[in-house]
Amino acid sequence: MKYRIISVGKIRESFYMEGVREYMKRLGPYTSMEFIDGLEEKISPRAGEKEIQAILQKEAEKIKRWLDKDEILVVLDLEGQVRSSEEIARQLEKWNASGKSRVTFLVGAAHGLAAEIKQQAQESVSLSRLTFPHQMAVLILAEQIYRGFKILKGEPYHR
């Protein structure tokens, strides 16, 4: 099973990117991991709802170019299911046994994701009921995937 994180927003802060790279490196012995970012469209801070929806649609078109039929799409969404680290590990195990080629985690930018992308997803998860900057959410997600694999292997890391 291959795993991928797509962040619509660009990871601009080097300290977040260093953390993401570190967890991707640590995941090497467990899985193939890919990271893609920077699919967001420019938008005015004063944009109204109509403009925001148009931007989300443009981003959705970019996202769809990266998605395959034979993969599991998981969107991060504030309204998604909150899981413990142990539950994430069990879900990784199920995905690994699913026969699908890849799991793609999708993190939206400032205005989230288009409704059509959310509807296309097989899973909707939330890292917390708190709102995080997308850069931080990507780092936390990478760490939780790593933690999940360590739990599955029974290796020390998770306490």
Structure explained in plain terms:
By secondary structure, the protein is of the alpha/beta class. It has one domain (2-153): 3-Layer(aba) Sandwich (Alpha/beta knot), CATH 3.40.1280.10. The protein contains 5 helices and 5 strands, in the order βαβαβαβαβα. It has helices at residues 14-27, 49-66, 85-96, 115-120, 134-153; strands spanning 2-7, 32-37, 71-82, 102-107, 123-126.
Summarize this structure as a short list of keywords or feature phrases.
rRNA processing, 5 helices, single chain, globular, alpha/beta, methyltransferase, EC 2.1.1.177
Beta strands, count: 5
- In CATH, the topology is named Alpha/beta knot
Count of folded domains: 1
The tally of helices reads 5
What is the residue-mean pLDDT, rounded to a whole number? 95
Name the helix and strand elements from N-terminus to C-terminus, one letter apiece: EHEHEHEHEH
Largest pleated sheet: 5 strands, parallel
Q: What share of the residues lie within helices?
A: 40-55%
Report low-confidence residues grouped into runs of 5 or more.
none
Oligomer: single chain
EC number: 2.1.1.177
Binding site for S-adenosyl-L-methionine: 76, 108, 127-132
Main location: cytoplasm
Catalytic activity: pseudouridine(1915) in 23S rRNA + S-adenosyl-L-methionine = N(3)-methylpseudouridine(1915) in 23S rRNA + S-adenosyl-L-homocysteine + H(+)
